[in-house]
Amino acid sequence: MTSTENNNNGSDETQTTKLHFEDADESMFDGDDNNADVADDITSADYYFDSYSHFGIHEEMLKDVVRTKSYQDVIYKNKFLIKDKIVLDVGAGTGILSLFCAKAGAAHVYAVECSQMADTAKEIVKSNGFSDVITVLKGKIEEIELPIPKVDVIISEWMGYFLLYENMLDTVLYARNKWLVDGGIVLPDKASLYVTAIEDAHYKDDKVEFWDDVYGFDMSCIKRRAITEPLVDTVDGNQIVTDSKLLKTMDISKMAAGDASFTAPFKLVAQRNDHIHALVAYFDVSFTMCHKKMGFSTGPKSRATHWKQTVLYLEDVLTICEGETITGSMTIAQNKKNPRDVDIKLSYSLNGQHCNISRTHFYKMR
Q1: pTM score, whole prediction
Q2: Which Gene3D superfamilies did the record assign (predicted)?
């Protein structure tokens, strides 16, 4: 596995998105982050929208064929969902989803974008002859006012790394509660988070042993932190050792904002004798209101997307035999200090022929 720490769809530029691990006391998980660098908070919170002003992120997302073609297919192959409807595009970016909807016959589309990209989106809409159908509104969903009381459809590509990183989901739910007509639809309407376990000895050894001798200097004190920094990376499907288990399915049309914070149990069953070095999280997205259910997966066995997968390295190497199980739970919550960050508590145990272990780790994605 090749390490690539880059930005997610929720804040994509060529800058690095760092996913930090904290294995300290539980106060970290409760949002007590008094020692955090103030600059980190500013970067994550205040520069979130600014990062979307750069073209690099939009190029990456548009070139993600799984992502963009899935939305195009949903709209073009199910025009009955869009035709003659009032549509709200939340986090419109370049306006590509709005353009799809306009071409599918929407009565009008309100494209809301908070970053400077809104100005570019207006130019794009005009260049393609849709200025009479698409209105681009610059601002935060929570602060703007629509010129109409209700919309028939809300569409958004809100998903982040680990599905919930950067917390754009809350913005979609706010828009749904304020503007969606009774009986209206949200696209997509379902999102599911999964977990599995992988063997990754080569990369983990390389990552850890590197710190023993860095140009002749001993930096082994960094080892433990290096082992436990989650990575956003592409996982080879052949590395998967266990089955995959569903942690949570969210119904975007019905859920409350607080439902995105949860604790879910899991039980992973080994499919072969091997060693486990990390757990891997990925998500699926579904459009169930289509004539035929449509969607896509970001899993290791599916076509690669810019979301990749989220790899949570374990401190220990687990020796597991076919049929043995790793049981545990994962708690996911918004960071109390910065709700765009995600705190993860992972508890797991293995009582096997060659390995008996029980651990709890605390991770932070920021």
Answers
A1: 0.85
A2: Hnrnp arginine n-methyltransferase1 (2.70.160.11), Vaccinia Virus protein VP39 (3.40.50.150)
What does the alpha-carbon distance between residue 28 and residue 24 come to, in Å, rounded to a whole number? 7
Distances in Å between the Cα of 342 and the Cα atoms of 3, 37, 44, 180, 296 are 21, 17, 11, 27, 23
- E strand residue ranges, the chain: 86-90, 108-113, 134-138, 151-156, 180-187, 190-198, 231-233, 245-251, 262-269, 274-287, 294-297, 309-320, 325-334, 342-351, 356-365
Active site residues: 157, 166
What is the architecture, at CATH level 2, of domain 191-365? Distorted Sandwich (2.70)
Check whether 366 has a pLDDT greater than 90.
no
Specify the domain boundaries for CATH 3.40.50.150 within the chain. 45-157
DSSP helix/strand/coil, 283: strand
* Euclidean distance between CA atoms 293 and 211, whole angstroms: 49
Contact status, residue 207 vs residue 226, Cβ threshold 8 Å: yes
Largest CA distance in the chain: 68
- Tell me the Cα Rg of the chain: 21
CATH number for 45-157 (one of 3.10.310.30, 3.40.50.150, 3.40.50.10490, 3.40.228.10): it is 3.40.50.150
Whether pLDDT at 83 is above 60: yes
Q: What pLDDT, on a 0 to 100 scale, did the predictor assign at position 333?
A: 94
The CA distance from 160 to 147, in Å, is 29
Q: Residues 125-153: what's their mean pLDDT?
A: 97
